[in-house]
Write the structure tokens for this entry.
Amino acid sequence: MEKILSVILAAGMGTRMKGYEGCKALLPLLPQSSPFEGKDPMLLNIIRNLPDGPKVVVIGYRKEDILSHTKDMGLLYAEQLKPDGTGGALLAAEGIIRSRKEPFLIVTMGDVPFVKRETYLRLVGELSQYSMVILGFNSEDKRQYGILEIVDHQVKRIVEWKDWQKWEKDRIIRFKVCNSGIYAIRRKELIPYLIRLRKSPHIVVKERKGVRVKVKEFFLTDIVEMMSSDGLKVGYLPSEDENEVMGVDDVESLIRAQNIYRKRILQYL
């Protein structure tokens, strides 16, 4: 298989990780003195699992820490100058995406550490049929997740929790696949949608240092609806294991991820 371009979104501040002020992507999977101190940072596990090919890390908050941890790994870096959403993170890497020759692109998150290489490769394999493929999963509790609106085996759009929770119950039950935030995309077909995404910001209310303010953000998920509306095929691949796509957003999920990692290490001893 040809080499694959991977983009890891790792610029976020991790505001829900209470008591921690470091870079969330560098939180340890093998804790020592506390859940925040230890070995095997999440980001390095993600990099190890990605397919062969150039890897771009989108950096922002505490960027020096990521640069220090990865300086000898031959990575590319793109800086997200302000926290303007997942779409803003992808737009930060637009110049690199345009300049590369690899036909396929993976976009993954710096706080989802357990996606296997085989899963990434299966996602890319589906690009023989689709312009974009989303890694999905089924959850007993869909609350807080975006869900895939699937019609005739194609994804029409991703609907966030704040929107779909207002739907009628029958409609909610129909859509069962959640969005992991991980995608495979045909690189050349993505480029015109980066231009459109840059012209399509959302105004959202965020809390900054205890004050609620309106900020401009770009949603990576908008690309799904843009492509689908233009007649391009967007597919999905369901993960067989919800733990594989778990995101580490707060202390509770961090401890859960660390326990999963520890058990996996013990299995191989």
